[in-house]
Amino acid sequence: MGKSSFLYFEKVGVKHLGNTIFQDFDFSMEDGQHWAVLFPSVLEKEAFFNTILGKTVVYHGHVRFPFATQYQNVKMAAKEVSSYRDLIAHVSQKYTFTNKDNLQNFYFQQRFNATESDTAYTVKEHLSTIEPKNNGYWDIEKVMNFFNLEALQNESLLKLSNGETRRLAIGSALLHNPKLFLMDEPLTGLDRETREMFDQVFQQIVDSGIQLIIATKVQEIPKVITHVGEYRSGVMHSLTKSAFLENRSTNLAVDSIEIDNSILEKLLLSLDVPKYEQFVKLHGVNVSYGEKRILKNVTWEIKQGESWSIKGHNGAGKSTLISLLIGEHPQAYANDIYLFNKKRGTGESIWDIKKPIGFVSSDLSRFFPRNQTCYKVILSGCFDTMGLFKKTTDIQSQLAMDWMIFLQIHKFANVLFHQAPIDVQRFCLLARALIKSPALLICDEATQGMDENQAGRFRQIVNLIANRPMISLLYVSHYDHDIPSVVDKELVLRDGEVIQMNG
Ligand SMILES: Nc1ncnc2c1ncn2[C@@H]1O[C@H](COP(=O)(O)OP(=O)(O)OP(=O)(O)O)[C@@H](O)[C@H]1O
């Protein structure tokens, strides 16, 4: 390797989660370079990052980190324990924040329950608990300022929206002043305006002396990137960014995916949904926390069988609106809301509300107990619990397995859910939602972090389900191309207000 070598893989063989992922894998990054890496599947992408982080089994070859040599020599001379990892920051799609007891045991509806979240740190507290591994350009003040976190500094971590959480995750990682920053799809979950602003964010990070490896989509390769590595057929094809973009065919169409219709037909027959006269109706709905108004006078009706998208900037109130529908928000009772023929607050139980709803969100995965397998997570849909705690019938067990086979995730049945790749987790959540024959399927940024082929397959299946006359769909995404074609109605929120409704 040359003198200016920063990081390299030499004929590396890697095993991860029981699978051999790489054989004779080569990759080389020089000082001053910033890489975008493209992987066909989440499994390979996660294995690549985890290998750099030393979390996989390298059974062959070497991974070398010349960028850390000087640092480690200095530490060794001072007789201090150190690792090359001290110089790496990583923001994955699976980031979680812990609470004050250092346990990650938040439960889902806690987010919407303003009084119950005292075990969660505020944004400012969280940033001050981080013990930077290195001193450098980034400190709390710079991070707060640069990522627009001042206004949120006293908010509990639990209450942050998806986009707010991501800004915080990137800012938190920078506090370590790493030399190498690994980012897994840093733009997903961000609204269009924020995504556009991120070119400046990357530039600032690079200007502070940090080198980047970003897993991303071709359409989202940031300006600062100098090189692109595309992993195909076991080989990382490396090019400068300009050569890559020149070579690239403009046809980025996603493969159309073969769906096994015979299994689907059988599964769809199990989706036997009753008819509701008053499906979902909201009239003048308001949600606020103290002075902060999150939803303002929202009036909206969804008829059975309709398919809607909900759009709006990060923090506009989309997830809050959904939380009212799925029975997770305590302020639902104080509002004029009809769900499935019943007015909220007239004696119905939370289970009555949840029963007709299948819910899939990018956020949901982190709330399942860590001992749950993929199979159990799917079965927990039968009981609307976050994990399986009851005995299941043979019919339920068979149905869960049939959905897994149809969705091609059956080989993960006994894998712990939190260890499964992101796309497998999402298909599990989809199966968990569908196993109980929902009348309303809600997908809240559900394909976030999935690769384009898997996201395409997810949309295709959602399309097939939502095309059934008795089933309604609510779909939230920051990307127009991600919205399934069955969706023909949209609600747009800005700062909690409905600014557009095409229904
Ligand atoms: N319990 C709470 N107390 C105070 N503020 C809250 C609470 N819960 C949510 N919020 C705030 O309400 C706003 C709306 O959040 P919500 O998650 O509904 O936004 P969103 O439109 O889904 O955003 P994103 O696209 O980023 O997911 C955010 O600014 C969030 O910080």
From TrEMBL:
Cite the GO molecular-function annotations of the record: ATP binding
Which intervals hold domain ABC transporter?
A: 7-258, 280-501
Q: InterPro entries, per this entry?
A: AAA+_ATPase, ABC_transporter-like_ATP-bd, P-loop_NTPase
Q: Which UniProt keywords apply?
A: ATP-binding, Nucleotide-binding
The molecule here is called: ATP-binding cassette domain-containing protein
Per the UniProt entry, what species is this protein from, by scientific name?
Belliella filtrata
